[in-house]
Structures are given as C-alpha cells and as structure tokens.
Amino acid sequence: MPGNGKDQTNFTRIATIGAATLVIVLATASGLSRPAKAERIDNQVAVFSALDKVTARISKLEAPLGETVQFGALKVTARTCYSRPPTEQPKTTTFVEVDEIQLDGTQKRVFAGWMFAESPGLNAVEHPVFDVWLTECQKPAKSVAQRPVAIPGQAPPGQAAQGAAQQPGAQDPAEPRRRVRR
Asked: DSSP string covering 102-145, please?
C-alpha cells in the first residue's frame, strides 16, 4: 500500500534537516581538527648543495643571510631561510638570488626565487655547468634555552631549601649519583 503524500513530505523534510545538520557537524569538526599552525623559525644561514657537472664535484655551501658565496662562476645570496621546529613536519624554504659571472666580468641574474629543501627539483638552479639546491637552514635567530622552572615555595634545583634539613644519605636530584666500588 503506497504512503500518502503527507508522510512523504514529512520524510523529505526530516531528511533535508538531517543532511543539513550533518553538513554543519562535519564543517565544525573539520574546523576543530585542523592542526595548529606551526610557527616558522627564522634562521641565519642557508645551506646549499652545489654540483659542478664538469668535475662531478658536490660541495656544501653555507651562505649567511645577505652575504654572497661563490661557487665556480655562480654567486649565491640567500635573503631569508625558514624552517619548522623538529616536532613538526619538515618545511625548509629560502629566498635566494643566483648570479653568473660572465666572461667579460659582468654579472647576469640566472635565478631569483624560493627554494624548498623537501622538493629540491621544484625550484633548483639548473645551469649548463652548475646545479644548486637548498638542503637545510642553520643557526636559528631566536634560540629558546631550556631552563629548569622555579616552583614557588621550593628551592631552585641543585640547592637545598633553606632551613630544611636533608635526611642522611639523601641526594639532591640535580646531582648525579656516584657509584661506590666495594
């Protein structure tokens, strides 16, 4: 026995409301499950690998930002070098300018752009004699030192609390244990 039109209309309305609710729930859940954006680390040195195709020699070039490093007839100048913390997925990028010294002594820009260490073939310098690609960034500009945190009401690590007597044989946890041979 076929259902009447009123039941079918109610069913369609419920299905539409259910689908809309599902879309809202999924949109909200996807927004909440996005990973937090990792902060980039500004580095002071860009490290490149350079290949001389004539001699088959591969060299490591360490280019401090703003300074020019020469490899053969190429002059490599790194402008920025960004990386991520070791706890995040690697993403190492640099903006680099590469100039070639011509036979007459003039310089010709052969590359200016972003290089990505995780995709060296994407934006590498491809020259008839030399290849240059980014491998890593070094020397973060802002270094965070790991220091023990002082807890209010407790003595700093490595010092006994003032006025408190230590038990005989008890060791300060900051001092290494000593082995005694018998």
From this structure: -TTS-EEEEEEEEEETT-TTTS-EE-SSEEEEEEEEEEESS---
